[in-house]
Amino acid sequence: MSERLARFGLPLAVVGLLALVVAVGPNLGLRIAGSDPAPAGRLIEVLDRLPADPAVLVGFDPDLGTYPELRPTVRTLVADLLDRGAGLSFVSMTPEGRALAVAEMARLDRLGAPRGSVTDLGFIPGAEAALVSLAGAISGQRPAAGPPGLDELDGTDLAVVVGGNDLGPRSWVEQVAPRAAGLQIVAVTPTVLLPEVEPYRASGQLAALLTTPGQGAAFRERTPAGSFPALAERAGPSPAAIAAGLLVAAVWLASALLAGGPARRLLRPTARR
Amino acid sequence: MRRATIPALVIAVGLLLFADLLVVNPALGDLAGVAVAAVIAVAAGAAIATGTTLAVRRGLDLWRRRGDPVGALAVLLGMAAVLVAGLRPGSAGAADPAVGWIVAALIAPIGATLFGLLFLATLSAARRSAIRGGREGLVLVAAALVLVVALLPIGGPLGTALSGVASWTLSVPIAGVFRGILIGIAITAAILATRTMFGIGPADE
Amino acid sequence: MNGLATDASATAIAALATVAVLGGLLGERRVFGWTQHLFAGLLTGYLVLIAVREVVVPWLVTPLIADPAGRPELWIGLAMVAITALSPWLPRALAAVPVSIMVGSLAAFGLGGALVGTLLPQAAATVVAGGEPFGVTLAAVVSAAITVLVLVGFLHGVPRGRASLVATSAGRWLMVAGIGGWLGYLLYARLVLLIDRIAFLVGDVAGIGR
Q: Which long-range contacts (CB under 8 A, 24 or more apart) does A176-179 make?
């Protein structure tokens, strides 16, 4: 195989294959929701325990690159919260998060979210300092600096952290949770943050966490359409395209393990230096 | 300003904010609130500094015909487009439709596509790592392969079994590994932060 | 609809931008590079925009114009913003003031967060609780043993003695395998992102399969 073909031909073939599968859209009875349904159940339990018309703070800091992974799940979660009568306050601490938050709030407005149900707290710079300021507002202290709506965060029932950037659920658990006693934090994050967020789910510091496409799909599957079906994004990525891509990846990785006999080398004892 | 003033400021701000976490005291809380507000103001200033520094650097590149002039022009045009759309009189800032259009048409698709390419880049890197034949690379790729197969979205009894493998792997061994790494990082961060806060350097040991 | 585009012009430009970046796959590096430069400029411009429009003006400038003498702390805040923004061109001693405040706060938040938010709760979560079904207890024991070994591998510098060597080595291999498992999930997630962009071009732009 020529080097040029390996460098450009194979990637192009993969993209072509995925495009073909997406275009044809074969329904082969595949589903991505099956891989990990338990986390979705935990999130639904937390949402079911909320009081009527809960006050929810949405820490919206996904990054542009990984947001498509979260977008259907985040939109479905927001639609579900609005269906439960929640008042949502959006705040961002990263510029990418702010850009996406503005776009999502404009979409909610356009598609008929109830008037007054969404509050824009804007952008707070300063990373951990911004979180500490938020935590103070949640626990009833008057913040020394911040947007006007910050005063109304006292009595927040739930914090939903949409992660992806540096300021993800770990920062919320480390900075907000110790200062705002009793606040429940749930999170939706991309898979790239799995190593740093999974232990917080296991320890219960995050009341619920969705962090892989399969977990997000399970949540979307189990959440009823509610009063705002247009706000939710039900259709995730094509399962057939995912199956095709994963098969390519599996073959590619398996062939690498066998190429030149590295698998045999693994079993051979290492020469002592 | 004397040299000792800077470390003193680091220590004072650090101790004040750390004490505020541990001790509930309204006066201390108010003082810490002022420090937090100062950090937020500094961060806002840093954001502006980032923009001005980049604009000056790329402007000089263009002026002196240094490096890639088209690239420098693209940076400056990008900055100008957002700033004109968001700062012109009557604009609603980040919520202005013109800024929203730039986000939807350019910022979001470019960012998302760059990350989409990472599927092939990561796959190629993993393949190279396995072919090189180091033991770590082989174990890494073998573990990735197991998970890739387990995550195949197929139905039936085989699909259920694979889902079970993926789910158990994530909640038991992978969670155990990540907790170990997280605790290790937290210990390292705590030591580093303590040394910074108290101004302990190698000379003090 | 995939993405955030709301009108035809935004969709068309988004499609061009997507194709320009995907062109990098075919070795078209120049347009790919310019797109990255444009992206950097747009993002930096956005950062400056929100810092000015959503922080400096509403929190500091507007209240000061309304009542210049009422809140003196706002003048200090404005001075901080100005010193930091101009720091590349100011004397080092003056520019070091905001940096010192930032470093002090990072150390304090880092220490507090690591101790109260991570170390103590995670150490507590490693302890295996009794009274659970056998399968759950066994999983918890396995997970805790892995955590301890990985921690030993992570923190141990040069192991001495056979037991220490075995534990450190086992911890490091477990770490590699765990990161490999994460790589499997990462590939899956990156694939979802690529499919999202392809679905945008195929569905939203070309109108196929909608």
A: A176/A131, A176/A132, A176/A134, A176/A135, A176/A138, A177/A205, A177/C117, A178/B21, A178/C112, A178/C116, A178/C117, A179/A132, A179/A135, A179/A136, A179/A139, A179/B21
Distance CA C128, CA C143 (A): 9
- Please report residues of C whose CB lies closer than 8 A to that of B96: none
Cα distance between the two ends of chain A = 36
Number of compact structural domains in chain A: 1
Q: Which amino acid is at B24?
A: V
Q: What's the CATH code of the domain at A225?
A: 3.40.50
- C157: number of Cβ within 10 Å: 6
CA distance B181 to chain C (A): 6
Residue C152 belongs to domain spanning = 127-210
For B54-85, write each residue's pLDDT tens digit: 999 999 999 998 888 999 999 999 999 999 99
Phi, psi angles (nearest 5°) of residue B59: -60, -45
| Domain extent for A163 | 41-46+54-233
Determine the 3-state secondary structure of A162 from DSSP: strand
Whether the predicted pLDDT of C169 surpasses 50 = yes
How do residues B187-202 score in pLDDT, each as one tens digit? 988 888 888 877 776 6
In a domain, C176, yes or no: yes
Residue B167 lies in a domain: yes
Expressed as residue numbers, the domain containing B170 is 133-194
* Domains: count for chain C: 1
C48 within some domain: no
C56 close to B (CB below 8 A): yes
**Which residues on chain A are in Cβ contact (under 8 Å) with C194?**
15, 18, 245
Q: How far is B205 from chain A (nearest CA, A)?
A: 30
Under DSSP, is residue B32 helix (H, G, I), strand (E, B) or coil?
A: helix
Evaluate whether residue A117 is within a structural domain: yes
Q: What interhelical angle do B175-197 and B5-22 show, nearest 10?
A: 130
B128: left (phi over 0), alpha (psi -120 to 50) or beta: alpha
The answer to whether position A84 is within a domain reads yes
Distance from CA of C181 to the nearest CA of A (A): 10
Q: What is the mean pLDDT of chain C?
A: 88
Beta-carbon contacts of C8 under 8 Å, excluding residues fewer than 6 positions away, are: none
Total structural domains in chain B? 1
The reply to whether residue C190 touches residue B122, judged by beta carbons under 8 angstroms, is yes
Asked whether residue C94 is domain-assigned, the answer is no
